[in-house]
Amino acid sequence: MLYRILKFPAKLAFLFYCRFLYVNRPELLQSNGPLLIAANHPNSFLDAIVIATLFKKPVYSLVRGDVYTNRFYALLLNALNMMPVYRLSEGAENLQENYSTFEKCRQVFRNNGIVLIFSEGRCINEWHLRPLKKGTARLAFSCWEEGIPLRVLPTGINFSSFRKYGKNIHLLFDEPFENEFAHETNKARGIAALNQRLQSSLEKIVYEISPDEKEKAAQLFNNPRQQKLRVALAVPAWIGWITHAPLYYPLRWLVTAKWNNDHFDSIMVGGLFVAYPFYLLLVSFIAFSCTQSALAWMLLLILPLCARALLLWKRPV
After folding, report:
1. Exposed, middle or buried, 117 (CB in 10 Å: 0-12/13-18/19+)?
2. Could you tell me the CA-to-CA distances from 108 to 17, 34, 112 in Å, in that order?
3. What is the C-alpha to C-alpha distance for residues 182 and 49, in angstroms, rounded to an integer?
4. pTM of the predicted protein model
5. Cα 104–Cα 105–Cα 110 angle in degrees, nearest 5
6. Are 125 and 172 in contact (CB under 8 A)?
7. Residue scoring higher pLDDT (240 or 232)
8. Which one, of 311, 127, 312, lies nearest residue 226 by Cα?
9. How far is 8 from 181, CA to CA, in rounded Å?
């Protein structure tokens, strides 16, 4: 229920943290299951939010199991269609819980559902594809052994920045594949072959950029249409900056102080997602109290438009 409730406002939120979204094969967003989305993992839970809000059907996401040590977080994540997977670094005693999670995934697939797995196994803010863990292949093979006609969809999530406001996002898909490994009688070799197949696909759609290659990054994420809007949007953009600075900069300072790591971007987006509606109401109420004019409530519409103008006006990041 919570997943369905939040999906629409999460789509609207794209307009305020994403400057430009490019999907190379948008028809795949209408896919039916059983489908396993196998993606890279550069930007914490923002990766799952991007995928879950864009796909038409509900997406179940596998997330790191140590978050589930908090009962409240566990309830919240379950309501958002998320399931835990544990790594050895999170305690060998927890690894058996992965059998339960994989069974839940297979149940999703039996109902023609969609599951998202981050095949690298961990999140690092970088334009680079790391070696894949075995979890994706093991889950896929367990489905094929049961006769579930699972397809695997290689997915590359590319962000123009992991720190700055107003990023471009390129969501790229390679061709989905089914069980191409039925001839392989040795399961270990089959898992290795699937991982190599998936690695080759992801290498084509995950950008490889070193931190000092700023010109290459700018070229890959460039959208010339954005530059033509800058002059027309100057005035509303400055209004947007003035009116939103009291929310954005204190929150950025707080997140930097407490979560200055690979989760920074996701926590900033999550914090703004929760706080922004209350901020709009507060500013509109203050304006109404000062003017006693019902027109003050028009700020509920005007301020978001100015925020979007600011995002489009500022230089690409």
Report:
1. buried
2. 31, 8, 7
3. 34
4. 0.89
5. 95
6. no
7. 240
8. 312
9. 39
Average of per-residue pLDDT values in the chain = 87
For strand 114-118 and strand 59-64, is the pairing parallel, antiparallel, or unpaired? parallel
Distance CA 68, CA 124 (A): 20
CA atoms of 59 and 41, how far apart (whole Å): 16
- Which DSSP string corresponds to 208-245? -B-TT-HHHHHHHT--HHHHTTTTTTHHHHHHHHHHHH
* Structure confidence at residue 315 (pLDDT): 72
**Distance from C-alpha of 53 to C-alpha of 6, rounded to nearest angstrom:** 9
Return the minimum-mean-pLDDT range out of 25-34, 84-93, 173-182, 189-198: 84-93
Instruction: Report the relative pairing of strands 18-23 and 167-173 from DSSP bridges.
Output: parallel
Distance of CA 180 to the CA centre of its chain: 29
Amino acid of residue 230: R
- Give the whole-angstrom CA distance, residue 290 versus residue 44: 42
The predicted structure's pLDDT at residue 151: 95
What would the mean pLDDT of 57-69 be, rounded to a whole number?
81
Distance CA 297, CA 88 (A): 53
215 contacts 162 by C-beta, under 8 angstroms: no
d(CA 247, CA 237): 16
b/e per residue 170-209 (b: at least 16 CB within 10 A): bbbbbebbebebeebeeeeebbebbbebbbebbeebbbeb
Strand order in the sheet with 82-85: 18-23, 167-173, 151-159, 35-39, 114-118, 59-64, 82-85
Task: Quote the pLDDT of residue 87.
Answer: 66
Is residue 150 within 8 A of residue 143, CB to CB? The reply is yes
Decide if 53 contacts 171 (C-beta within 8 A).
no
Q: What is the distance between the alpha carbons of residues 177 and 264, in angstroms, rounded to a whole number?
A: 34
CA distance 78 to 72: 10
């995950």: which residue's tokens? Answer: 206
